[in-house]
């Protein structure tokens, strides 16, 4: 059998040389916010269930919901809702074939990020 001569080849590019792009980051954030909103839905269902289970159980759930940790949790959830909504609108534009060029896609990505922050602050002010 012939001797196999191993050739030293470079490894595939990985995180050390890959520069994350705004479009990939916004796509990842869309997935993260979607999954985080599932957790938020479970917390809201827990709170509603506690309200029907009795005053002792509701006191625990309401204590979490009205604590500083609960306020931060629901504020971040509100930010996630707005971001996920705006990213969904952005994807509807992409599905219709609009905004697929890189400059427009990046502008829409920044609009999702900035718009979600602005809409979160406006919602908090109104509520």
Structure at a glance:
The chain is an all-alpha fold and 127 residues long. It has helices at residues 22-53, 55-65, 68-95, 102-126.
Features:
extended, mainly alpha, 127 residues
Walk me through this protein's architecture.
- The protein has 127 residues and is mostly helical.
- It has one domain: 3 helical TM bundles of succinate and fumarate reductases (Up-down Bundle).
- The chain is built from 4 helices and no strands.
- α1 (22-53) runs antiparallel to α2 (55-65).
- The mean pLDDT is 92.
Percentage beta strand: under 5%
Class of secondary structure makeup = mainly alpha
Count, helices: 4
Major sheet description: none
What series of H and E elements makes up the topology? HHHH
Kindly report the average pLDDT value.
Answer: 92
* CATH fold call: 3 helical TM bundles of succinate and fumarate reductases
> Superfamily at the CATH H level?
Fumarate reductase/succinate dehydrogenase, transmembrane subunit
Q: Which percent bin holds the helix content?
A: over 70%
Radius of gyration from CA coordinates: 22 Å
What is the count of structural domains? Answer: 1
Number of strands: 0
Low-confidence runs of at least 5 consecutive residues: none
Overall geometric form? extended
The end-to-end span amounts to 78 Å
CATH class: Mainly Alpha
CATH architecture name:
Up-down Bundle
């Amino acid at each position: 059998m012939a001797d196999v001569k191993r050739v030293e080849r470079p490894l595939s590019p990985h995180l050390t040389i890959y520069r994350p792009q705004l479009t990939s980051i916004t796509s990842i954030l869309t997935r993260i916010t979607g999954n985080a909103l599932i957790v938020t839905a479970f917390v809201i269902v827990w709170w509603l269930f506690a309200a029907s289970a009795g005053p002792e159980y509701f006191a625990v759930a309401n204590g979490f919901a009205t604590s500083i940790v609960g306020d931060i949790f629901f504020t971040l959830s509100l930010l996630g809702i707005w971001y996920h909504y705006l990213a969904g609108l952005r994807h509807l534009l992409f599905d219709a074939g609009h905004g697929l060029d890189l400059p427009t896609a990046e502008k829409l990505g920044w609009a999702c990020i900035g718009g979600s922050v602005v809409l979160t602050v406006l919602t908090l002010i109104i509520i």
